[in-house]
Amino acid sequence: MTINASGWRPEMSTAHASTGPATFTGNRALMLDEALIFEIGSTETTGVDFIPVQVGSSRLGALARHVEIGLPGLSEPETVRHYTRLSRQNYAIDLGFFPLGSCTMKHNPRLNERMARLPGFADIHPLAPVDTVQGALQLVHELAHWLVTLTGMSAVAMSPKAGAHGELCGILAIRAALEARGEGDRKIILVPESAHGTNPATAAFAGYQVEDIPATPEGRVDLAALMARLGPDVAGVMITNPNTCGLFERDMRKISDAVHAAGGLVYCDGANFNAIVGRVRPGDLGIDAMHINLHKTFSTPHGGGGPGSGPVVFSEALAPFAPLPIIEKSGDHYVIIEEETAADHHAQSFGRMVAFHGQMGMFTRALSYIMSHGADGLRQVAEDAVLNANYVLRSLEDVLHAPFAATGPCMHEALFSDDGMAEGFSTLDIAKGLIDEGFHPMTVYFPLVVHGAMLVEPTETESKVALDQFIGALRSVAERARAGDPALKSAPHFAPRARLDETLAARKPVLVWKEAPLAEAAE
Amino acid sequence: MRYLPLTQSDRQAMLATIGAPSIDALFVDVPDVAQLDGPIHGLPMHASELAVERHLSTLARKNMVAGDVPFFLGCGAYKHHVPASVDHIIQRGEFLTAYTPYQPEIAQGTLQMLFEFQTQVARLLGTDVANASMYDGSTACWEAIVMARRITKRGKALLSAGLHPHYVSVAKTMATFTGDLLDTAIPTLTADTDADRLIAAIDDDTSCVVVQYPDILGRITDLSRIAAAAHAKKALLIAVVTEPVALGALKSPGEMDADIVVGEGQSIGVGLQFGGPYVGLFGCKEKYLRQMPGRLCGETLDATGKRGFVLTLSTREQHIRREKATSNICTNSGLCALAFSVHMTLLGEKGLRTLAMNNHHGAVAAADRLARVPGVELINTSFFNEFTLKLPKEARPIVRKLADRRILAGVSLGRLYPGEDSLKNGLVVAVTETTTADDVEILATALTEVLA
Hints:
heterodimer, A: Aspartate Aminotransferase, domain 2, 7-stranded mixed β-sheet, 16 helices, globular, B: alpha/beta, 2 domains, 4-stranded antiparallel β-sheet
């Protein structure tokens, strides 16, 4: 029984506060604008004190710096205030619901932050003698064990720095395997139309030609079209499962078998692993490589765009080609297999993708998260994520067109289109309307296979109360878009900025701050 | 399960709304053969905060912490003091738990910070523009080589022998697949860099020359000559900076006419973290802007005429251009870029230059002291905060012996260049503001003893 059964309800909307009189600063109480550091700092100011050193002769040679760099400094109080003010112009998971489809914006537990900051992990050098970092190597090894066991695969490459980097790792392993068996002339990678943009970009970066595979009317890979295209020129496929329409690829095993029969290999984009973790092992579906976004499924923070971490799990067929370095256990000792020793055990490794060993700081956070959930909790994660998404789907399908809802349940994300909106109203207006309601919008205009797509991924860390509030808000905004409410066209009204002119930004790019020309400054 | 808000009654109510009889019914599209009927066998069940903390703390204690011992490792990752306020700011939830700023009206905090970061990086590197960060220095270096190929439409890159061997290794891996030709070499244990070799090797097929500054052995080369030679053949100069603090004391690569400058930003704000996450810096001349990889933040106006910032020029990027994108990069290193930017703001011009000179003077004193150890020779005539010693014996076992005495003495070249006999006596020693005179004396004394 909930304690607050009659409490707050999503329909408790209030009339908008008037915008009120102008202020001298342009600020609105807690709504504070902030200048750039170049406008408030000076090259004379510093927020750091130093221990004096004994000055000797210089060994910089003829290249010692004589001209000013032009870096403004701020004292510590000014610095803290500057960034605190900036932070308040950001939406974040800590503030509210962030249903960005395909991005898995789940709660970031603070235990993970504390663990990553233990000096034994945060303050060790990547080239320190291996005997002095045994605990760090054990941590990587333990995380690797979780990842291969959860996915039912044979091996894992830990070093890729993010999802797209993991994709590259997987595709390079595929290419190395094909070349090892003398089939380097396979030049085509098949990618579904609904794929993340990184998939075709990765395949092209690795030297492959990309061909699209069409989707069926129910939003899945067209198996017949795929099988018809397979042949001796096809290196493999890149498939996202669950896919970007939020659906499980029912034919995944058949796809894998067909690709293997035709001599190709199967890459799975694991961006959506959160939907199935603990309930389905991708290894049982016949895939050969899959990256895992630790910053999605395993809750390492997105940090405003990174850093991520994208370990790649491999089937037995691809495991020998995994990149360096490889961390292994040898008796009671952990070792790092690098260029030096690779010839002995990993002669077929395709080589190194990054300096050092990968995103240790993310490994620590991910292991902390995984251990907190355990095998039972991770299964519950997938179930609650899928339950939340289906709840959103069924609660809104009467007011928003859900193109694939008739064919069955969705996985971890609910997909809607802008079909049925008033003339001139589209997904963008709904997204901006949601901002005024205090939500981060869903992913918009992706996947490309649906017109005006809106992809809602609630994740498992949202309560029913939070979902109900969002559903109420999205329903209200969708109804305004259906009715053609002109106020929606100019939303957001209550954000730190109104709609920004992206065309201007691209036409006359201003990417760095410059001092105003003297003449202008004098005016 | 403290991170899961749904109660059993919530779940039942929601299933009723959905019209599904059970959770299993929501997984109906998964073939039976792939369905697991319970938690995966052989893995532990959920654990309390205390239990997790206990386990991870046990692992952490098995490592020798840089801050606990005399510490001299560098070679692409440096120990610097990071002010407390940097870590405070990057842990604010509004930065930590935000996404890529695709909805600019509610992401001005991240966007303005990125605009400031881009400006700081461009000024530091001496380039016209800089992007909003890459994964790290090594991947930024490869992306620069690919960018030079796109600009020059030539496929041969000349890599300096002084380029970090891991960066070379990354480039070699990638070039195997892309078909780029790489001309590489092993450094020699001398004061001279391979600038002359590079200048002589530039030809009409060369897309770029890649030079690290200061290089892997700590040596400093005048890039102007190499830039002029490259430009004479219509090739580009890519400069690689693995220790950005150096640019507080040295001329920037941009001032010496480098076309693309990439770097590892870890030294400023980020911390060692056993190799990652770090932050790749990427700047270039304005004329090459549209060939740049990665996200860019630009200034614009909102509908009411207020200044604001957005991600821009995204027609270069994978989510728009798909297979025609300049790179496949999506996630970058945003929070590390914030750490870099906050630390750089705290330092400012004055602080950075003081920090740099303190590093340099500390390194000079250490180099002179260590060169007095019998049999030890300092190979550098010029350096910033890192220099190379030639020991009378193979350095790698010496480093291990010193580690047994709880001294992390530096990076042996045997670790970085396994099997290269000419380099095996080399030891690269880094000295920063965190190194004390006592640390240096302890190292000098211990080194004398283990070499005796």
